[in-house]
Amino acid sequence: MTALPDWLASALPAPAHHSGLAIARLGDAKMLGRGGFALTSPAFDAGEELDPCFTAKEEDAVAPPLEWSAPPPGSQELIVIVEDASGDGATPPPCHWLVWGLAGQRGKLFEGEAPPRTGKNAAGNSEWLLPDPPEGETRHYVFQIFATELPLTLMPGASREQLISAIEGSITGCAVLYAPFTGTPAEDEAWDDSDLD
Question: How many domains does the chain have?
């Protein structure tokens, strides 16, 4: 297993140190947070647990909102990759979201908003893959944003590997946002018969 580079290890908690993360391959110490480039969410702070409304634990769950500051000068397009970094690094981390076609400027994705272009997640579809850890198990989700100096010509539905290969070598900046989620009983399972009395 390859260790996570120091520049990235210091930006993520130990449970999220998966060496297969896209940013470990695409980024470097100079690119991370370059020029103040940052990824945030109005729905949770870095390290704060995801709300169940963004997970499989709620019926009408949607993708969380994201916001980013201005990328480094010369950036043409932004790409978002969300991965579950809970594994040991022996296999690629499960991909929850592949998004591109975002303008190379300060911007945001609203809660549940359909991005301009999406690729295939670990389930083989192009939607936000709802986190669904077993009850009591904590999984570790790493939201990664990349700015590129060239616009992507990748068609929607591309795979994680196709997307990474398409932007490798053209990154102008990157940033990460981390959020854990611990499996809870599904909403309809949380009811107790005594609640109905």
Answer: 1
